[in-house]
Design goal:
single chain, 105 residues, alpha+beta, Glutaredoxin, 4-stranded mixed sheet, iron
Amino acid sequence: MDVTERIQQAIDSQPIVLFMKGTPQFPMCGFSSRTVQALQAVGAQFASVNVLEDPEIRATLPRVSNWPTFPQLFINGELIGGCDITLELYEKGELQQLVAEVSRA
């Protein structure tokens, strides 16, 4: 399986997937940490992919998603964005709605 297929498989494996530096328990950058905190604050059940452990995904995902930085949050197969967008959605109450819709689906 090539790296693009592995990325797609990860995105398709769960309704909410976060490609991040580190893990939710041990984030390796502040942006990843803040994104995890926002997801946890709204009670999201999410899968994570540690891009530091997989250099191929780290190199390829920005080209696939057209998003240059990490973390990258996907909900229902769609790129939501990175840390800033996730925190903005959280502050507006929209992240809670997106997560609630996933929980109902």
